[in-house]
Amino acid sequence: MARVFVYGTLKKGQPNYKHMINTAKGLAKFQGTGRTVEKYPLVIAGKYNIPYMLNIPGTGHHVAGEIYSVDDQMLRFLDEFEGCPDTYQRTLMRIEVVEWEGKGGAGEGRAAAEGIVECFVYSTTTYPPEWVSLPYHDSYDSSGKHGLSYVLRESR
After folding, report:
1. Which helix (H) or strand (E) is 12 found in, with range?
2. What are the pLDDT digits (tens) for 88-144?
3. Residue whose C-alpha is closest to residue 98's, from 120, 65, 68
4. InterPro entries attached here (predicted)?
5. β-pair type (64-70, 2-6)
């Protein structure tokens, strides 16, 4: 099992969460909530209003999201879903645990108790330079105050 941190449309209550609970795509077990230890720019960009975490450590906000344990099948699905490695790149990042629900081995419990876990995160280094000038968010909600409605893949 691998740990993945999601901050956008794959979170609970968001448009693509259905993929996280579709066992035909693999297993994803919710572990808790967290936020990036380092600051990153989270922007909503492109004609489909997609959330992107730009891989520019030290700029932006501590981005909030959810921590999941996923099996190899789900990780492969997420790589494909996120257009990895062209659109997003899957990298390890340190995530501060905000609330932990995860049950598991002693190693998991100890990491959570210390407050920091390493998770794969889909961020991007391949973006138009003007995206750096977009407003930065600390969390994403597809129906948030930003007023930028996410366009589902089925509607593109």
Report:
1. none
2. 999 999 999 999 886 554 455 555 556 899 999 999 999 999 999 999 999 999 999
3. 65
4. AIG2-like_dom, GGACT, GGCT-like, GGCT-like_sf
5. antiparallel
Domain range list for the chain: 2-102+110-133
Q: Is the peptide bond before 85 cis (omega within 30 degrees of 0)?
A: yes
Dihedral sign, Cα of residue 2, residue 100, residue 91, residue 42? positive
Q: Which of 38, 82, 114, 118 is catalytic?
A: 82
Q: Say how many Å lie between the first and final Cα of the chain, rounded.
A: 33
Q: Which fold has domain 2-102+110-133?
A: Hypothetical upf0131 protein ytfp (3.10.490)
Q: Which tokens go with 98? A: 């905000």
Residue 78, amino acid: L
| Per-residue DSSP letter, 138 | S
CA dihedral 90, 33, 43, 89 (to 10 degrees): 0
Q: What is the pTM of this model?
A: 0.92
Q: Answer yes or no: 82 catalytic.
A: yes
Tell me the C-alpha distance between 59 and 42, whole Å. Answer: 10
Taking the C-alpha atoms of residue 36 and residue 116, their distance in angstroms, rounded to an integer, is: 9
